[in-house]
Amino acid sequence: MATTEHTGYNTVLKLAEGSETKKALVGVTSDTFARQANVKTSITKTDAGSKRVKATTIDDTFTVSGVCGYDSTLLSRFDIMQLVGKTVAFEYVITEATAGGGGTVSGSALVTGYSEDTPADPETDATYSLNLQVTGTPAFTAAS
Amino acid sequence: MNESIGNKLAQVLDGICPVFENEAGTQHLPYAVYTLDTEPTYVKGGTSKIAGTLMLYIYARTAADALAIRQSVESAIATNMQGGQYRSKLRSATSDNDDESYMQTLEYFIAQIA
Questions:
Q1: Is the minimum CB–CB distance between B49 and chain A shorter than 8 Å?
Q2: A29 to B51: CB separation less than 8 angstroms, yes or no
Q3: What is the pTM of this model?
Q4: Domain ranges of chain A
């Protein structure tokens, strides 16, 4: 059975404050979802020279890169910059046509940072970057 | 989004002089040839922009004709391809000539916005 490669544009991060409908972010050129286990290492005499390693917690983070803009159906530039310091609900939706390929990672996240770059060069777009730290354990739901 | 810069350019320059893409379809002066070197900007949900370099080569029988056409071309592009779906910025303009014709070469930044 052949491997089905997933395409980046079929994975979309959606955010919402409170009970609002989750929306994708405007102009996203790339987003990164990173899972990092915090590891505790120990060794005792009885371990006979082999270290014990175990994961204590997992840090889940998102980084979004995009082109600044406005779209009434999306979270736009002014919406996004005002999210810093707030806890938002998120859905990270993996939409793949092939059975078994899709699914959703969901939960809540603290928006830890926003920055934008607005160069004077008329040939260059204004761009932004958004950082989120997932709070709690996200839910992983495979598409049926 | 489909790239439509070439079609728009042909429409904008219609009536100034015959315009060809990549290679001249005539030897009858005056005429212009353009080349496009563009790249799309992909965002989640589609293509947000197609942008790059437009080179316009204007060929005329006299230096004055070439300059007059260049001025008309610059004016037409500034009027019709700046704002709305298109963005343009003249980067450079140079003059040259050979035994058969006088040339004006215009280099533009060009963009088509979704």
A1: yes
A2: no
A3: 0.84
A4: 14-42+50-139
* Edge-to-edge order in the sheet of strand A52-67: A23-24, A11-16, A87-94, A103-117, A127-142, A52-67, A28-42
What's the total number of domains in chain B?
1
Q: Please report, for the domain that includes residue B54, its CATH number.
A: 3.30.2000.30
B51 touches chain A (CB under 8 A): yes
Q: What is the pLDDT of residues A80-125, one digit of tens each?
A: 999 999 999 999 999 876 666 789 999 999 999 999 999 998 889 9
Its ipTM equals 0.78
Tokens describing residue B70: 């260049």
Asked if B45 and A67 come within 8 Å (Cβ–Cβ), the reply is no
Query: The domain containing residue B32 runs over which residues?
Result: 5-113
Say whether B48 and A9 touch across the interface (CB within 8 A). Answer: no
How many Cα atoms occupy the beta-carbon half-sphere of B52 within 13 Å? 13
pLDDT means per 10 residues, chain B with 114 residues, are: 89 93 91 95 91 96 95 95 92 92 96 91
